[in-house]
Design goal:
This protein is an alpha/beta fold. Among the domains are: 2-157, P-loop containing nucleotide triphosphate hydrolases (Rossmann fold, 3-Layer(aba) Sandwich); 325-438. It has helices at 2-14, 49-61, 83-96, 115-125, 162-168, 175-178, 182-198, 202-206, 209-230, 237-248, 255-264, 271-283, 297-302, 312-318, 326-342, 384-401, 429-434, and strands spanning 38-43, 69-73, 103-107, 129-134, 152-157, 252-253, 287-290, 305-309, 348-354, 360-367, 370-377, 406-410, 415-419, 422-428. The termini are far apart. The model has no long low-confidence stretch (mean pLDDT 93).
């Protein structure tokens, strides 16, 4: 085991780091913060967590040696999934290197047993800054092991935002000209169309159009196999895959509905198992579930939860029901953007609203005890009946929740209208996702 560590350290000294395109978030400020904390970078597989670490590593290596800055990737097949590897890691570094270790980057460490207990011990005893990445929500602030509480800060990484997508594609958009210059508007809408269809996974964004679908399918197969089936030792693989297909073709779910649908497909799976499967899938960051807004916890548990996916590409390529469904893709994109903004605003809570007559508002944004904003996503607002239905629900929720900050996100319609004494802002999706704040 010591020889494996020495080999990895030797390879690290000669390793060439890839070129990296900057993201809107970086880790540089965390490298000098006092008091130093364990920085835990979480998010879905292949969203750019490792490359975010590379950006900081490159910055550090301008002034420090590779003995002071060390990177270890725990998805290296030579590394045994044993806590003994961690126990021997720092002593081996000290015995191998002549310089004091200052920064240690640990990529995908969550599969090593007792990683959190080891990390607490070395954080408390060593003069080293630790940066840790992981593709499991078990590393998130919501589920982080007790021994690390108060010792870490979480940085959540999502697929590229639309602004980052434009930067990666080297597409310059002059927002001031979009409304007046036809070519500028056409360029923007083409970019938005590609973003909706193929999503914001960095490798997919940079790939040629002919390779994008293959990469997306490979991501799906990898997350199902490695992050769900293997990690949680699932034996009934086909029932899990059937559940995923149901979710990909649904806008919401209840345990009972999923149970009945699986039963009709000849899968005998108990409700407890379905609940566990859902937990495992969410643990991988592949899906998010959105509860109904209610002041009664019991209602939040009983009512259906809406389901969203980490990237629109999965809906577009894997769903048989929602392929090319602009409305569903718009709503999913808005949700992921809200989650991205929520990561920077821990007090923000997200829900959907539904009346007893099944009238619905897509997103309720709540701060503390107050509802801050109501958002309806409506791609085709030009249809009279659709507009009437969507605004009726919005106004009803506004009255019930005592919120007058009302938005309708559209494909291209932009206006401010007074409806029943309420001010409703209609804003195109492209403009909303390029805004810095909600």
């Amino acid at each position: 085991m010591i020889e494996i560590i020495r080999t990895i350290l030797s390879e690290w000294k000669g390793r060439e780091l890839p070129e990296v395109i900057a993201r809107s978030v970086d880790l540089v400020d965390y490298s000098t913060m006092e008091p130093g904390k364990i920085i835990v970078v979480t998010g879905f597989r292949r969203t750019g967590k490792t490359y975010l670490a590379y950006i900081l590593i490159k910055s550090l290596l301008k002034e420090k040696s590779r003995e002071k800055v060390v990177y270890v990737n725990f998805e290296d097949e030579r590394i045994p999934l044993e806590s003994a590897f961690l126990t021997k890691l720092l002593p081996t570094i000290k015995n191998t290197h002549t310089e004091q270790l200052e920064f240690l980057f640990l990529d995908e460490i969550q599969n090593i047993p007792n990683w959190s207990r080891w990390l607490r011990r070395v954080y408390d005893t060593e003069k080293t800054r630790f940066f840790v990445t992981g593709s499991s929500s078990k590393m998130s602030s919501r589920e982080i092991p007790t021994e690390l509480r108060g010792r870490f800060l979480e940085v959540t990484i999502f697929p590229l935002s639309f602004k980052e997508f434009l930067r990666f594609k080297a597409i310059a958009i002059n927002e001031a000209e979009v409304e007046y210059v036809e070519d500028e508007k056409a360029k923007l809408m083409r970019a938005l169309g590609e973003y909706l269809e193929f999503g914001g996974m960095p490798e997919v964004v940079l790939a040629s159009r002919g390779k994008k679908a293959d990469i997306i399918h490979s991501y799906y197969n990898t997350v199902v196999r490695r992050d769900i089936i293997e990690r949680f030792k699932i034996r009934n693989e086909e029932s899990l895959k059937a559940l995923l297909r149901l979710l990909l073709n649904s806008t919401s779910y209840t345990i009972s509905k999923l149970y009945n649908n699986l039963k009709s497909l000849n899968f005998e799976v108990g409700k407890g198992t379905i609940q566990s499967y859902l937990s495992y899938i969410e643990d991988s960051y592949f899906i998010y579930s959105l509860p109904i807004f209610s002041f009664k916890i019991k209602n939040q548990l009983q009512y259906a939860r809406k389901v969203y996916f980490i990237d629109t590409s999965f809906l577009n390529l894997l769903s048989t029901r929602f392929t090319k469904n602009s409305g569903r893709l718009y709503e999913n994109l808005v949700f992921v953007e809200l989650k991205r903004r929520q990561a920077n605003d821990p007090n923000l809570e997200l829900y959907y609203w539904q009346s007893q007559r099944k009238e619905e508002v897509d997103f309720v944004l709540k701060h503390g005890l107050k509802v801050k904003q109501l958002i309806q996503v409506c791609c085709d607002i030009n249809d009279y009946d659709t507009k009437k239905r969507e605004t009726k629900a919005l106004l009803k929720a506004s009255k019930e929740l005592k919120c007058d900050n009302l938005f309708v996100i559209t494909e291209d319609y932009e206006a401010v209208e007074e409806l029943n004494g309420k001010r409703v802002v209609y804003i195109p999706l492209w403009r909303w996702i390029l805004q810095k704040s909600i």
